[in-house]
Amino acid sequence: MEPLSLHFLHEQAGARFQDVNGREVVADHGDGEAEYRAAREAVALHDATYREALRITGEDRASFLHGMVTQEVKGLASGAATYAAMITVKGSMVADARVVRREADLLLDMEPGMGAKVREFLEKYLISEDAELHDATDELGVLRLLGPRTADLLGAVQGSPFEPLPQDATRAITLAGQEVLGVGSTRVEPHGVDLLVPRSGLEAVWKALVAAGGALGLKPLGWRALEVLRVEAGVPRFGQDMGETTIPLEANLTHAISYNKGCYIGQEVIARATFRGHMNRKLTGLLLGTTEAAPGTELKKNGKKVGWVTTVVHSPGKGQTVALGYVHRDHLEPGTVLTVGEGPTEATVSTLPLP
Q: What is the pLDDT of residues 93-138, one digit of tens each?
């Protein structure tokens, strides 16, 4: 398990750790509900430096990646970010990534454990283009801020008012003497900002945020509380809610797809599915009450399998167990009651984000 850069700071703060795809994450700091409440009501700081990164350099970097992902890259402005999927010729997912177009390179920010897989996928198609792939995981780390007081905190640390960032908008910020790129990350929580920080400056930035956040109700946010927020927001995670058999449209990833960009690997499958107007199954929300269910548990209607569960969490905000899962299109109507596993427990289909 690859340790976090800030492991010892978290250890001193009483953190508990877990493994996610071979990388260490902070599970919690002893009170997951307080962490959740801070993200909902004040501000929370999550160490996401377990994420992996690739850089692409060379004159053809934009045109090469443009043909490899579902989203627009060539038309992406310098400094801008977007979310994209990589898929096979059959339309199933290889991975997802945030793409940041910087002046000298393209940066791919990915889930833990995905760096080598994405690099292998891209290298398979890199033939004559002037483009090179570089592991950038050791160069920078992501710190994630969530909560309605995020802008107040960033303003306090940078010494001037901070204007909120919409999803995927970017802004260069100086924090604790470090040049940081702020990226709007509002899908999990409406005020979210991700900070892309040089690894050498992570400790200084973390300490500055914690020190200034004390007066704002800041709590360090662990993986478990973040998963609750993610499920409530209906945001799927690759490796948990999406895998190598998932077509992006099944996971509600229409925001990751450009329909005007031209050819890319797997485009024909996406175009056919879009023209057809529906997928046979879609990711949806599930309300389970007091029921506990493991990922992969089947969902049934009248004894017939119609789906399965992917992520299950207990939501303090909802006061019950909630989940994400795939359900056949004939049973996606909110309020539909499904049997969990062999029963007699049940799950109720819900809209996403969870109401």
A: 999 999 999 999 999 999 999 999 999 999 999 999 999 999 999 9
Overall size of the chain counted in residues: 355
| Domains along the sequence of the chain with CATH | 7-51+140-231 (3.30.1360.120), 52-135 (3.30.70.1400), 280-355 (2.40.30.110)
d(CA 237, CA 138): 22
Mean per-residue pLDDT for 140-159?
98
Biggest CA pair distance of the chain: 62
CA distance 329 to 336: 11
Residue 2, classed as helix, strand or coil, is strand
**Angle 223-233/32-41 helices, nearest 10 degrees?**
50
Check if the beta carbon of residue 309 is closer than 8 Å to that of residue 296: yes
Residue 262 has pLDDT above 90, yes or no: no
Q: What share of the chain is helix, strand, coil (3-state, %, to 5)?
A: 25, 35, 40
Q: List all residues 6 or more positions away from 116 whose beta carbon is below 8 Å from its beta carbon.
A: none
The whole-angstrom separation of Cα 324 and Cα 87 is 22
Confidence of residue 275 (pLDDT cuts 50, 70, 90): confident
pLDDT grade for 273, boundaries at 50, 70 and 90: confident
DSSP state of 126: -
Q: State the distance between the two ends of the chain, measured CA to CA, in whole angstroms.
A: 37
The secondary structure of residue 179, as a DSSP letter, is E
Looking at residue 240, what is its pLDDT?
97
Q: What is the pTM of this model?
A: 0.96
Tokens for 325?
A: 């899962």
Sign of CA dihedral 46, 49, 54, 56: positive
Whether 98 and 106 have beta carbons less than 8 Å apart is answered as no
